[in-house]
Amino acid sequence: MRGLIIRKALSTLIVGGVIATLLSSGTTVTASGSDVKTVPFEVSGELPIYPRALWKNGSSGTNVRKVEARLVQLKLLEKKYLDDDFGTMTRSAVKKFQKSQGIPGLGYVDQNTLDQLAKVTHVPTQAELYPPAPVVNGKKLDARCATGVALCIDKTTRKLRYVVDGVVKMQMDVRFGAVKTATREGSFTVGWKSRNHVSKLYDSKMPYAMFFSGGQAVHYSSDFAARGYNGASHGCVNVRDLAKIKVLFDEVQVGDKVIVYRS
């Protein structure tokens, strides 16, 4: 008797498993005793088929820069976003272009979008793709400062220059970290700003702070104003001109480039 009960239980489990498998594969199932019958179902409507993306959000490289340069020609994208990276602003510009041409606003570049873009723009010149670096006092700034908005910070000349589309708008003296607390070099962006910041680590005031690399920031330094280059920062970029950095703080936006280099 016990063996019969076990066999019936196993039979039920097997049939149930078959039914579950058939249901998951898209069939309708009816069961009578140990008989299992399948009835195929129909799918109504059509799934949309999207064209293949050549470049989309997250893409990068020279081809993305060429697309961005064409969008700049049409004034759909600001020069500061000419950066080889297909990001939010490039996506928005692509959608605007697609809308203007009466084609689906996909937000990415497919072959049709590229063809239409090529019809209404010219092949970008080398200067359009890679604008020449600004020249100050007969000396070129870092090439990364040539496009968009940048805090171009030269450790050699100890100058900070606020550059917009290759034009130097402001210039000021700066001081850097000591050997053991060196100011990092490279390409960064302004992560956040704090008008009346106070360092918890060093218990010192850092007004008009614009953070670009961890705890390192461009900010006003009363010590720099008083002692000049006799002192050093803990890694930040110190500015001693209070009037200028007040103006700079209001001009600079989160996301703007910060280029720290040696000329």
Largest sheet, in brief, is: 9 strands, mixed
- List SSEs in N-to-C order: HEEHHHHEEEEEEEEEHEHE
State the separation between the terminal residues, measured CA to CA: 93 Å
Stretches where pLDDT is under 50 for at least 5 consecutive residues are 1-34, 36-44
- Overall mean pLDDT stands at 85
Query: Whole-number radius of gyration?
Result: 31 Å
- Helix tally equals 7
Pathway: Cell wall biogenesis; peptidoglycan biosynthesis
Domain L,D-TPase catalytic: 149-261
GO molecular function, one term: transferase activity
Keywords: Cell shape, Cell wall biogenesis/degradation, Hydrolase, Peptidoglycan synthesis, Signal, Transferase
